[in-house]
Amino acid sequence: MSAKAAASRLAFRALHAQGCFALPNPWDIGSLRQLEKLGFAAVASTSAGFAWSAGYDDLTLPRDAVLGHLRALCAATSLPVNADFEAGFADDPDGVAANVALALETGIAGLSIEDRKGDRLYDRTLSVERIAAARAAIDGITARRSWSAAARAS
Fold this sequence. Notes:
mainly alpha, 8% strand, Pyrv_kinase-like_dom_sf, Pyrv/PenolPyrv_kinase-like_dom, TIM Barrel, catalytic activity, globular
């Protein structure tokens, strides 16, 4: 892990220890710069915003495109970057862990993993296993829930 990534993760952890804070979503380097100027202490990528700016529907970007985007965001700022890592680009826990390890290499300070694929929630047991695998792969999971009215338990 680079010194910059380590410092970013420590800063992100300290923000969480202080309580709630705003975590705005840049979709590109330009919007990231504007958020920096506004004085935010950290940012989080947006899967939908980046997908739309690249001409894709949300949740359809290839994993490697998202990894490249995360790498670019992290390289462009000294702020901690939390990754909207969709559903981890895998259904099985081992795949999620492997992909989270790849995300960690981009310099992110933390990430969120969704509990659904499309409009269906993952089975509770599988969801727990996926989060445990992600947690084992990175020391920076962020508690975040994006609600979809279409999401329903399987």
